[in-house]
Amino acid sequence: MAGPRDPAERCSCRNTNCVERPLRRLFEGLASGVATCPWPFVLVPLLLSGGLGAGFVFLPQRQANDIEGQFTPTWGPAKAERDFVRRHFLTDDSERFSAPRLPTEGAYAALIAVATNGTSSVLDPAAWAEVLRLNAAVHDAEYERLCARTAGSCASPNPLLSRRGEAGPPAPGSLRFPVNGSDFLGAALGGVETDGGRVLRARALKLVYYLREDGPEAQDSRQWLESFLQNIVSKVAELRLGSIQVTYFTSLSRQQEFEGNIRSVIPLFSVTYFLTITFAIISCLRLSCIRNNTWLASCGVLSSGLAVLSSFGLMLFCGVPFVVTVANAPFLILGVGVDDMFIMIASWEQSLRKKEKSNVKSLLAETYAEAALSVTITTLTDVLAFFIGTWTAFPSVRSFCLYTGTAFVFCYVYTLTFFGAVLVLNHKREQGNQHWLTCMRVDVGEDQAENSCLYNACCIGSCSGQPSQPEGEHPMSTFLKKYYGPFITNKWIKVLMVLLYGAYLGGSIYGCTQIREGIDLRNLANDASYVIPYYDDEDKYFSTYGPRVMVVIAESVDYWNESVRLGIESCTQNLEDISYVDKNYSESWLRVYTGLAKRGLVNIDSKPDFLNNLIVLFRILPSFEWDINKTQEEIEASRFFIQTVNVTSAVDEKHLLSQLREAAKQCSIPLKVYHPAFIYYDQYLVIVQNTVQNVVIAAGAMLVVSLLLIPNPLCCLWVTFAIASVIVGVAGFMTFWNINLDSISMINLVICIGFSVDFSAHISYAFVTSGESSANKRSIEALSLLGYPVLQGAVSTILGVVVLAASSTYIFRTFFKIMFLVILFGALHGLVFIPVFLTFFGNFGSLPHNTMSKKLEHRFRNDKDCP
């Protein structure tokens, strides 16, 4: 009778049985059904994919590529501030248009004219004449009908044009900058050289043509902008400009260029599938014409394709928005699906070697019992990571995670049904000695020696005419066992690996401190887009003066009370004291009104006088009437403006917004600060919080899954270590590869967690369950069993996304870059760092030698090669 078990063994077995044994029984039952009747498991996924694939008819309706809606926080404060401005300050672009007072960017076409000679000025006579010709070419009769108007005429595209008309350029030194009279030129002239505040030279001039977007002309305005984009290049060419060069942009450009990104990536799908199928076939190629696994490899790739078709169709049926970021998902799913295929084929081959005479039902049952648990672990961790990723403020991330997480579920189901049935059918073909390509029976015997060598090589697998024998251990596994394992466990090499890890960790932490936040809007366009030169000119010549910010008094206050006015003035000065604000260019109706009162022109010390005398203010400066929401009894809301400066980077934008809101919050008067650009700035305030939240929750979920399905404390410790280390590495090295922390890279950091588990869990578990006597030998055995599968899985995933490196779009290149870092660092941990570190700490928590059995030894031997 067997003696009592070791307590550690009892604990491990008890924890394992509560989860693993029911799963193994479930998988064995499923395998029995698949082996008995394989054809339904082939046909049902095909029919289901076809049915769900019909959801693609809704694709045009489900496309939701609105940049604001998808790449800004759903509940961003700026959106609520915009709604408040819209309700309380009505616009009228047919009579009293004012660009700084718009609650949105408006409908416009913009041109930047830059003097071609590096030392010349757009105010030189030749350049100025070309600017006038350019303006005349744009200002056609249709524009005259649709233009935004103020004081009965079209709003001028540039203050200098409205002043001078067709006259010659202003004389050097006649203009002041940035304010010339009542005109603010900070956004009209760029690259300005001054002497005592007077303009000597200006390298660039901006023309902005606003159109009406309110009322029935809105659709006509859009058509005019579309026509502008189609014709501007030819118009500029016809003008034969020699003194200026022109870049252009419209309010439609950013959205149109972003929507074109999906079209640019479609050709890459065919390249990806070709590479993946080729890799899968080569990995599973055998010399025997009977035992060749080419069809298995092809069906494994097909299984991933069916998963994409089914999941995307289902999501489209359910009305989930299809965002451009979702176009990344098929590349990732393909790599992971092939990885699962390798696991299934490897376990099947192991079952064949152990039970060559067994029936197909028992072979598939053992294959599922060994492989399905591993596939379950990796799928569960990945799916959890994606569905946790839906808890985000960014709709683009939410859509990507829903589509991809659902696709992983289908990929898992189809691997266990469709691909399992293909395994059975392929085995029956082999049992019938049928050729892998023609399915014709191949007769093997002594008479085959009389045939030619070429015939025997094609039909038998060897020139001799004798059937090829099953191969033994894969050469890569032999290399890892005999050469790489002993090399990596050498004491001096281990010291070197520790130093290498220290350098990796130090570089990663430094990179994390330098990480940049937020998505640059230029990155939403194709590299070859016409908007890129425009953005470059704008950054180069017009970045000194930033957004002109509305400061809104959001409630009715007693303006006629002097203490209230002093409180408002104090708040205004606090805002002006921010380093990003130039107080010389503020615009406040209350300051002007108070100044009139101090000069004795009006009385504002009582409520009736304050309200009734506003008409005097409006006669002097009519535009101030648009800044006061006044009823008969009170002023419900009002606003003034402050001018920001030197907002040249995402860091500046983040600090500007946070400092403005903090100053407004500290004010005793209820204030809101708003500019249309703040809609996009809001991402800076939540991106880090959302990323950390998702990463921490997902990592915690991964740890729970690891404890349930890999019930060994030491193993779970190393899984946690790998997750943290890989995330830090990816986040840090993003900086060195010029990748910002934005909604796109946040997707990949969530993916990072799932893949960290994939690479680390099985290596560490194989180590702690090894029956070898020393830590070094256990590490070598873990590498020999799982080193090649880890490497093969990494290669298959990289092949799934590598074509994105050739994309001309930031979104897809970023996806490739971060996935490359994830796979590189994950494989580096699985093949280098963890095997070395386990030799230092591995004596704690490993199972006793006498508890090992062949079954336990092979349980996580997910060798993915196809010998």
TrEMBL record:
Question: Keywords of this protein's UniProt record, alphabetized?
Answer: Cell membrane, Glycoprotein, Membrane, Transmembrane, Transmembrane helix
Family matches, as Gene3D superfamilies = Multidrug efflux transporter AcrB transmembrane domain
What name has this protein been given in UniProt?
Answer: Patched domain-containing protein 3
Q: Tell where it localizes.
A: Cell projection, Cilium, Flagellum membrane
Q: Looking at the record's lineage, which domain of life comes first? A: Eukaryota
Q: Which residues cross the membrane?
A: 265-287, 299-323, 329-348, 368-394, 400-425, 692-710, 717-739, 745-768, 789-812, 818-845
Q: How does it sit in the membrane?
A: Multi-pass membrane protein
